[in-house]
Amino acid sequence: MKLWTKGFEVSKEIVKFTVGKDREMDAMMAEFDVIGSLAHIRMLETIGLLSRDELSLLSTELLHILDEIRDGKFSIEADVEDVHSQVELLLTRRVGEVGKKIHSGRSRNDQVLLDLKLFIRSRIAGTVEATKALFDSLLSLSEKHKNVMMPGYTHYQVAMPSSFGLWFGSWAESLVDDLIQLQAAYRVANKNPLGSAAGYGSSFPLNRSLTTELLGFETLNYNVVYAQTGRGKTERVVAQALGSIGSTLGKMAQDICLFTNQNYGFMKLPDELTTGSSIMPHKKNPDVFELVRAKANKLSALANEISLITGNLSSGYHRDLQLIKESFMPAFDELLACLHISRYALEQIEVNPDILSDERYRYLFSVEAVNQLVLEGASFRDAYRSVGEQIQNGTYQGSAAEVSYTHEGSIGNLCNAEIRQEMEKVVGSFGFEKVESALQKLCRPQTIPA
């Protein structure tokens, strides 16, 4: 079944190539296609394109289809082109000719735009929840290990004293900034494109503000050409934000791969979280974090892939945009898997409490020695030169007891409470409650006008 059929058969080879993985991707949007249709027909009734009886009939059956989707009983038939066609086909089979009326005033172009935006909103909400859960674990670990010292590095060389409190807390604060970027992407996605039709509007007197309210959008994409041209851009902006979270996870994973190496010995994964070698019986590999690192890099590359697909396209719809779904939509599950497994593994990781007793870290406190001389009245440059000469001639005698940091965000003052406040503020400002309330109201049978 093709909504655009005109009485001639298209080559099966063309159909196979052009449909590609559309059915697989569309199945992920089925719930949102029905929700969008519920809002659309409510609007159609207000402008006289549906009667109240027709609205009631269509709404009731759409809610039945929605239940089937959520129960895993929905599929796109082999000869049906896409999810939009499948939903309309089911309606027509079950309620007759009135089922064909749901497409009035819209195109598959704005229909898929809407489905994608509803999908994105839903998946961002899940991503925020999982990111917040990892954040909570990281801050908890920061507090638990705040007094355990470790070396800090610059240029991969031993630099200055740090702590596991600082290390765990740094990734937590990084996630705050990642969610700020994701919030900006959410605001781009949280605009209603419905009513832009094929990208040039409709001669029907559509009430786009009503569907915006019914679907819980913050606002709408006002210009109908931009609503269509924004496809690809929305996915790219969201992909950049997902990649930012991925980058945090990837850098953290790289540290863990180094720190669990025997030459570092800062951390240890329980045996049951490691894998082995088929030839070396002693091996216990941190494969889980190596894969997090690789998946994070893959996520970071997604925005560039989308940019390359869309970069030379003129305004208006192009079939090229279909291919974005194949990489973009599964990216949310990839990121969620990384967030969940990172949290699971980190909560079981073992920290070495006695790292700095190793002789290789004897110069770690040289800056403390310099600062102490400054406190005693020397200029910083003279103090630096003096300690440097001690290191060169082998007379330097630094010790860990000299560490006493108090400023914000330092070893002695992690500011974890302040970091938590920042995260709570960011998460609260997404406004998921408004969306959830609107969709619950839309999907309740009793909200249908009598």
Description:
- The protein has 450 residues and is mainly alpha-helical.
- It is built from 16 helices and 6 strands.
- The longest helix has 37 residues, at 108-144.
- The protein has a two-stranded antiparallel ribbon. Strands 3-4 form a two-stranded parallel sheet. It has a two-stranded antiparallel ribbon with strand order 5-6.
- The protein starts with 11 loop residues before the first helix and ends in an 8-residue tail after the last helix.
- Helix 8 links the parallel strand 3 (191-192) and strand 4.
Subunit organisation of the chains: single chain
CATH fold type of the largest domain: Fumarase C, Chain A, domain 2
Order of helices and strands: HHHHHHEEHEHEHHEHHEHHHH
Radius of gyration: 28 Å
Structural class: mainly alpha
Q: How many strands in all? A: 6
Helix content: 55-70%
Largest sheet: 2 strands, antiparallel
CATH superfamily of the largest domain: Fumarase/aspartase (Central domain)
Q: How would you summarize what this structure contains?
A:
The protein is mainly alpha-helical and 450 residues long. It has 16 helices and six strands. The chain folds into three domains: 12-104, Fumarase C, Chain B, domain 1; 109-356 and 421-440, Up-down Bundle (Fumarase C, Chain A, domain 2), CATH 1.20.200; 366-402, no CATH class.
